[in-house]
Protein 1
Amino acid sequence: MTQKSPVKQGSRAASPRKASIRRQNQAVILAAAEDVFAERGYAGASMSEIARRADLPKANLHYYFGTKEELYRAVLDDILTAWRHDMDGFRSDADPKQAVSAYIRLKLDFSHRRASGSKVFANEIIHGASVLGDALGDLVRAGIAGKDKVVDEWVTKGLIAPVDGRHFFIMLWAMTQHYADFEVQIRKVLGKEALTEADWREIAIQVETFVLRALCLPV
Amino acid sequence: MTQKSPVKQGSRAASPRKASIRRQNQAVILAAAEDVFAERGYAGASMSEIARRADLPKANLHYYFGTKEELYRAVLDDILTAWRHDMDGFRSDADPKQAVSAYIRLKLDFSHRRASGSKVFANEIIHGASVLGDALGDLVRAGIAGKDKVVDEWVTKGLIAPVDGRHFFIMLWAMTQHYADFEVQIRKVLGKEALTEADWREIAIQVETFVLRALCLPV
DNA sequence: GTCTATATATCGATAGAC
DNA sequence: GTCTATCGATATATAGAC
């Protein structure tokens, strides 16, 4: 499957220049695909439009990723890998206020900077995670990584107001993703043509204040 | 465009039996379309699948709704009409705790009962509201209907903790919609095969408690 | 108002020259 | 590794018999 080269050459690692071309083209295609999948959905996105956006011939997409579904999987995998490293501030010996504040800002910032990726994921879940399938269970477990137990522990110790750890994370994810995924609607509510960096700072303050107060932590 | 009848007859109102057939077929098609659009997205939904789900020949869908886009608009219109009547508990002379509690339960219950409609709307917004277009501005204004000002007034009077009325509604919508739209993910987090009525009651309690505490209202 | 058969368009995927 | 030309499948939409 990988030995399509007409001329024999030791291995792929023996040609670092070509490997670099490969990596760069894949990155360009992934970025274009993430945007198009976010704007049009999986079925609505066409390989031709992704190719146009990546400024490459359509056949090259199939050369690098095989099928449309494989490309879609690669986009999902890319965003989920980036997400996995977000929860590290949650340890039972950490200060609740610090951990919660940092996590909200991290999530909001990430949703904002990689809005397309966030939207692709949202779409996948809304449509029943038919492509992720059973892998979603593992992803959720990896994403929450027992941190709900840390929250439950804080509750037991009386450090925060009583809340179910799992629902706490669901509500946090709901708020932080919503501002990115529903940006078009947010803009209408706030009466803004576009959201500036200052708007995003205000959003962070609003969410942070709301959540800290819900946990009876000092604002 | 509507005078396709081969035989002339007074008017459509003159034939109440046919008008009833018309209304019922339209309702069946709308319900099927709402489900399919929710599961597959606009582009991914096919007229044949909607027809199959409605147990009608595909040509009848075009007879009643013309094009796929018109059918989609009708589905959106249907769900938005139902939403418009949800905000009536919010009046400045109402008791904040009562109003907030009732609203959360109303929204959650609605998201749950009309999950497909909620998902269709979420999809439309995530993809930039390209079909709703400028109409979204009016819809948002009608949806919030100045109720953010009521919240601001409660803050000024010292009845609730300080919060921006617009962000308050955004966060409320985020949480209530998220539980319906992301149900697949919620189930994984909670470790449930399906969400029962008891689960939904627990969800309502969790969200209500969280929000009331964020406003420094008695739980 | 119902339904079969079909015209037309578009998309995903690949063959094959370079 | 790149790119043009094209195949085959599927979707929307409609014509026309009933």
Protein 2
Amino acid sequence: MPELPEVEAVRRSLQPVMEGGRIERVVLRRPDLRAPFPRRFASRVAGQTVRTVNRRGKYLLVELSSGDTLVMHLGMSGSFRVAIVGDERDSLVHDHVVFRMASGATITFNDPRRFGSMQLLSREDLPRHQTLARLGPEPLDREFDGAALARACRRKKTSLKAALSDQRVVAGLGNIYVCEALHRARLLPRRRAGSIATGAGAPRETAHRLAAAIKKVINDALAGAAAEQSDRESASGATRFRVYDREGRRCLRAGCRGIVRRIVQSGRATFFCPVCQK
DNA sequence: CCCACGACCTGCTGGC
DNA sequence: TGCCAGCAGGTCGTGG
């Protein structure tokens, strides 16, 4: 479930095991994920100490003592399993990469669809990574606000759904949280993105409302992802989303009696309430 | 440049 | 019950 909140939960699970520790061994159990592993990938990572485990948008950035950075993306179906010493289990289908730490802990990357990616970038190459370099602001940063969002959407003829899904506009949202944020902001996914920048009457009120909704949705999801780690109950909670995957059911906004609709935009499902979203 | 669309992969679901 | 089409939360390349 890898949008920003889920990737951040993964980062938090990796950090205590990796940061400050030495990666003793890297096992590649197949030659590629989305792309082939580069030559000497495993040997360039093995032996390195992990300086930091960071996140940018949906990317995980593991900075190594050599100066190289391991840039990882979970794609649609990627996940990490952490096992401390004595806790190892048999490997599963689609376990593609195993990192063994000097502590004895193992970190296993599993990815059935193989849309995930791992790259190793030198200090010089990291800033040249085209996708990373063009990533928009982190939604929870101060610099991301209504004005920034309005600027990024200005003159965009595409839909709000497509604009918010564009990682260059804001980093880390995916199909689910885009639907959730637009519902919270009471904006129709099909509405033209540029229209939020030209708020006639109440200048930019719409953009501010949308930026605030994005922050709220991401914050709540981060809290939910944290709770999921400790509390098993909330993991199965089917009520985590207020519109996503709720086609045909009642809108959950207080006082709204709309029925959630599902449409397809640029090939992906969009869920919205036709009554309270304008 | 901007935008929509299909491709990349496997697994699960729901309808027949 | 069994089978198969359709769908899945992301990104990238292409072509208009």
